[in-house]
Amino acid sequence: MTAQAPPGRPKPPNTIKIDGREIPFEPGDTIIRAAWRQGVEIPHYCWHPGLSIAANCRMCLVELPPPAGRPAMKLDVLQWDPVKKDYTFSNKPKLQPACQQGCSPGMEVLSESSKHVADARAAVQELLLLNHPVDCPICDQAGECRLQDYWLEHSRKGKRMKQEVVHKPKAVSFGPTIVYDAERCIVCTRCVRFCDEIAKDPVLDVRERGNLNEITVSPGRQLDNNYTLMTEHVCPVGALTSKDFRFKARVWFLRTARTICQGCSTGCNAYLDFDPRSNAPHRHRPRDNKDVNQYWMCDLGMLSYKDAIEGRLLEASVGTGPASIDDAISAAKDLLGNVAQRPEKVAVILSAQHSLEDNWALFTLAKTYLGVERFFVTGKPLGKGDEVLLSEDRNPNTAGVLKLCEGNPPRALGDLLKMADEFDTVLALGGHVEVDAKELGQALKGKKVVVVSSHVGPLSKLAKVALPACSWAETDATFVNKKGRVQSSERALHPRGSATPGWQLIGKLGRALGFATSWRKLSEVRKAMTGGEPASISGKQTEATA
Length: 546
Hints:
alpha/beta, Ubiquitin-like (UB roll), Alpha-Beta Plaits, Rossmann fold, 3 domains, three-stranded mixed beta sheet, 14 helices, about 25% helix, disordered C terminus
């Protein structure tokens, strides 16, 4: 009879042993998935946790000793005998691909501890490199290529083949974003499966057989869906390269920050890779989070890293001329005057593009200290979404603004155009708007407009005083995605120009107007946001998974 766990206690997990180490597994797990969950590396090329199983690279072969009393399955092989200097008959256990072999309680698995497995992996590595070009010095994958890593770990031998290698097409354009090098391809089919299973656009396939295999695009088509850059990201070698990143940087010179994608309201978890020497971002990559984006990002999000430095508002301005931050704050104080005595004449525009901290600071200044009751929200206009990740809302923090204004929801910026005669002062955050710039200019003509923004836009161009805020990549920040998940984003870049965190600029403006907007550190703002002051936002900040 099977022993049962006492009531109230969790049932002990099923386990397998990999090289003597106990590894728990869940029903339906394969060996490699159970090991991957526990951080145990079983080398692989074709397996990916988010894709179906192909089991075609054979790099993840493991040995499964049979249960007691059952003979092992053996294979007859020819092996070179260095003493006899001839091939001799021998046998070895039949190895199994860990990506395909399911787990069962008590299963023994030999991976690093098996000589047969070591020999098999070395042979697989040699086979994959037989026709592989020596492109490492010019390959974008150099430094993060599994062919390089696994050669060092499992082979370290030169290839024995003396014949001319098989030559295949190089630098083939698959579409607007991807270049393919067939000579580097190991035909793991990750890209084929991703297009079929995740992007729902089965435009890639394999043609020819054996060592003539290569990936091809369907006739009359291009690789041009919303997730083309992910085909490059899932490629374990340098066969698929991004036209955007191609020949621009070496990965060993880059540093990485854990960020939140700014492309839409899904809030995909991402890595921002940047060069600290030039203070420039070079690419966005997905960061695994099963509750938000799993393992993926769309092209729009992966290219959104450019917004960290492009189209920026880098210097303060008063009227049409540049100014220092202090001079601009002083000018804003003079412009606003006794604004607290007439809050009904003040319109406050929050930004779905800016962080929760920036919006909280402006909301608190306006509501708590100025007594403003009418708020508006703006951001980038809606776009076309899809059923995978891409949202119609192209702003990363719409839900954060709505949560902040809970009980007094902000109106759309279009309503401000209709109500413009009711206001003579506008305090705004952000430069992006979803309304016509000319109509906005006519509505705000002659009004006192003060804008804090990270980017140049219609609002910053209309401002009597414009203050340059840090972009999302230049400061630690918080964003709330469309499902209400509160997520933090790390600073990657040093602020450019005179850019200063938006919440800090608003705090300075408040103090210049004579209010106790005393926050000077991010920790103080976050403490107040989570309940330290009346204008707080509820909800526990969550840290995304690595």
